[in-house]
Amino acid sequence: MRKKWLSLGLSLILAAGIAGCGGSDNNNGNGGTTNGKSDGGTAAPSTETGQPVQLKYWTDDRHDQEYIKELINKFNETNGDNIQVELTVMSENYAQSVDIAFSSNQAPDVLRLKSANTSGFVKKGYLAPIDEYFTDDLKAKFGSLLIDDVNRFDGKVYSLANTGLTMRLVYNKDLFAKAGIENPPKSLQEMVEDAKKITEVGKAEGIYGFALNFKNPKQAFDRSVREILSLSGHQGLGFDLKTGQFDFEPYSQVIEYFKQMHKDGSILPGAEALDIDPLRAQFAAGKIGMYLSFSTEPGVYMDQFPTEINWGGALAPTLDGQIKGTSEIVSAGTWLGISAQSANKEAAWKFMQYMYGDEVLKTYHEKGFGIAIVPSIVEQAKDPEINGMEGFLVGEHDSLWPASPNVTPEGSTYADAFFKYMLSDEDLKAITEDLNTRYNAALSKAVEKGEVKVTPNPAFDPTKPQGE
């Protein structure tokens, strides 16, 4: 694994950006959990009185929260600068909660950043650049991983890399065996057939072949369709890198198979209201045959939802059973950032320094919370000894892809439109053509305004998306 990651160094340097996922689960302050005491604001305390400097850290990651709590408790107990960090783990709608916090001057001091939200946060003025804190050692450690439009914007750096996420089919081996299925599906047709077989043998016990967290269709599709398409040779978010235009026709092909599983009754009932954690709880209880998700899952089933079921991860099925591209590694390049509103930026940086230390990053990888991409960490870290992680480690079919332009069309998004189709009898061809029209119109406007840049690449090779 470590040799493979070292060979991906050039890919990371060349990457223009990675659209975030998923894996990530977007969450907000409603129902979030905290670690420590809250003072309700970010104003600087009086250090002359000996009162500690209070920092707030917000994250939407739940898979690693127990480890992060341990790290923060250790930092609070051992740092020599009288700094105390309060952790808040969001439950849903993270980006919206951040918007509200900044608009009301209640922003946290440190934020969890992902490739999907960093650009927006920078444009809104939420983040403070961290260039002034860079030492030669930090430049040597992270310099090759500074990526324009991911963690560096207009020459200023706002975050540093830690890990990347692979995407896989997560499947219950015992249920596959019970249904007489020897191997995970290679094609989408096989996935449909396998989901039906598992449901037929398990429905009486509340077991179904397939599930996704359709409460948020975009999260569900970005952790599943994206993976299927990239392995099938198509950019996973509906953008055609060869033409520089959106084309949702390949996407619609995948949705047809999802619709068939719904029609067959192979999808867990109530999935349209299912969030990712309730889905994981059902999988841990042995009620779901398979779903698609990120390399965060092994850590989830070790700490958050401990399970005794026999499960594993495998490459996602492709449109026709043939691998014509590579599985996209996502959310590479960012981790923590400092709020522009923080009155304690120096203290926030000291906390970030601690979190970006070798031992923290190495242990984060070894515990299976993410796959390390920092070269110096890759060289010293051991492969995680976590049940299921072997199926998520980077292999010959994994790589980085160029970024897809992020635009907001008028009307429904591709995720909402396709999910509605799954539950209805609408015209898929008409839906796809409408999406192409609206997304490309939004793209043209964004290009005219200078918000995005698009360069068609007719020679794009999906088997070598970064040209390595």
Give the tags:
37% helix; six-stranded mixed sheet; 468 residues; four-stranded mixed sheet
Provide structural commentary:
The chain has helices at 2-7, 9-14, 65-78, 94-103, 118-123, 136-142, 173-178, 188-202, 217-222, 225-232, 249-264, 276-284, 297-304, 345-355, 358-366, 375-380, 414-422, 428-448; strands at residues 33-35, 53-59, 83-89, 110-112, 127-128, 152-153, 156-157, 163-164, 167-172, 208-210, 239-240, 245-246, 288-294, 311-314, 327-328, 336-339, 371-372, 398-399. The two termini are 17 Å apart. It is globular. 50% of the residues are buried. Helix 8 (188-202) runs parallel beside helix 11 and helix 11 (249-264) runs parallel beside helix 17 (414-422). Helix content is 37%, strand content 13%. The strands form 6 sheets. A 6-stranded mixed sheet has the order 1-3-2-4-16-5, covered by helices on one side. By secondary structure, the chain is α/β, with parallel strands linked by helices. The protein has 18 helices and 18 strands.
Arithmetic mean of pLDDT: 88
Ends: how far apart?
17 Å
Radius of gyration: 22 Å
Q: Helical residue percent?
A: 25-40%
In this structure, how is the largest beta sheet organized? 6 strands, mixed
